[in-house]
Amino acid sequence: MIDPTPLAAKLIQRIYATGPISIADYMAACLSDPVHGYYTGRDPLGRAGDFITAPEISQIFGELIGIWCLSVWEAMGSPSRFVLAELGPGRGTLMADALRAARLRPAFGDAAELVLVEINKDLKVAQQATLRGLASPIWVDRADAIPDGPAIVIANEFFDALPIRQFVRTDTCWAERMVGLGPSGELAFGLRPTDGDPLNDNGLTTETGSNFPVGAVVEIRPTAESIVSHLADRVARWGGAALVIDYGYAAPAFGDTLQAIHRHKYDDPLANPGLADITAHVDFVALARAAKESGATATPIVDQGSFLRTMGIAIRAELLSSGQDLDGRSDIASAVERLTGPDQMGGLFKALGFGSGQLSWPGFDNGG
Ligand code: SAH
User: Would you say 361 and 300 are in contact if contact means Cβ atoms under 8 Å apart?
Assistant: First the structure.
């Protein structure tokens, strides 16, 4: 057996003492253990290089989101004060590009109180540096600590990092997938039978209406749903909107999507806890349902490619290309392809908006 990571050693001790833990507890420890978590431990910026996100691929991504925010703000009646919040802003690149694009209407920047929801102290420093001269944000570490009032909330690749629970259909019952110890005391997956129906408990049965074959896996994401419920409740009460972009599915899907990426490669999720980025696909249907149940209106779930095309990515790319040499133009074209191509992020990633009242926003089928 290879040497366990410091977090694996800590988890093995914990499981030895108190028994197997859920996938959600395992993910939460991997990502946000106070000492060894992937997002909370030391050297996160280096590790953030394990994957590349849309705002780091091209400035156009953040710019179009800035234009989206501007349109929503105008649809809200251009309030003279509102909260502009981002969940998990990474290096601050998306927000910096968005604010630059939104300079089109200076009153927007004057009205916005920027709130960043972030748990990583090194990334907060990076965000501050990226946003210098553009905004003076405040930081909170939870979505429910965002100050009251009308708000526009952005979340790109945030929800995929929130913990999931997995339930597996066996021939007799639903069982929860757990992390316990294998024969040599190493971390290992196991099943714990449950007497409840995880689908029914989560409002899925009637929606899917199907019988599940043995081996079917259902994933639920309680923290994500409660964050969406909270945001939906606040925008329904005070006005505003949220935009969620992430990789995931737009129709109910049944399978194990837990994945770990370590040094740019897929990794066994149990092999390098704390050192690998561990995520799972986002169930957009569940998020839209949580938003509606809390009184918000939700847009259709669209592909990222469709969202960006409707937002005018082609025109923006053409404008940016006009000042470039051949190499510059080809870089822009390949960034656009990566962001919008159906076999690339354009198809894998989805966008969902929710907010108060009638949504006449750009980017979605129901938008202007
Ligand atoms: N949105 C950025 C970064 C995505 S990575 C981009 O598109 O480039 C995920 C981000 O969410 C990081 O900033 C990470 O530190 C933050 N994060 C992860 N879990 C979090 C949690 N539970 N609460 C707040 N922020 C979290």
Answer: no
The residues that bridge with 279 in the sheet, in sequence order, are: 259
| Number of the ligand 1 atom closest to the C-alpha atom of 120 | 15
- Quote the longest CA-to-CA distance of the chain: 65
CA dist., res. 289 & res. 284, Å (int)? 8
**Distance (Å, rounded) from C-alpha 56 to C-alpha 76?**
29
Taking the C-alpha atoms of residue 239 and residue 135, their distance in angstroms, rounded to an integer, is: 23
119 CB within 6 A, ligand 1 = yes
Residue percentage of the chain with pLDDT more than 70: 92
Give the SS3 label for residue 279: strand
Q: What is the pLDDT of residue 358?
A: 73
Rounded Cα distance between 29 and 36, Å, is 8
- CB neighbourhood size of 252 (10 A): 14
Ligand 1 centroid to residue 172 C-alpha, Å:
39
In single-letter form, the type of residue at position 218 comes to V
* Long-range contacts formed by 47-50: CB under 8 A, 24+ apart: 47/275, 47/277, 48/90, 48/91, 48/123, 49/264, 50/261, 50/262, 50/263, 50/264, 50/276, 50/277
CA-nearest of 78, 213, 88, 203 to 139 is: 88
H helix or E strand, kind and range, residue 243: strand 240-249
Within 195-237, strands assigned E span 217-220
- Output the CA 260–ligand 1 centroid distance in Å: 16
Q: Under a CB-based contact definition with an 8 Å cutoff, are residues 298 and 291 in contact?
A: yes
The closest alpha carbon to 336, from 362, 310, 358, 309, belongs to 309
| Separation of CA 287 and ligand 1 centre (Å) | 18
Indicate whether residue 62 lines ligand 1 (CB < 6 A): no
Nearest Cα neighbor of 364 from 283, 251, 244 is 244
Residues 328-341 have pLDDT tens digits of 999 999 999 999 99
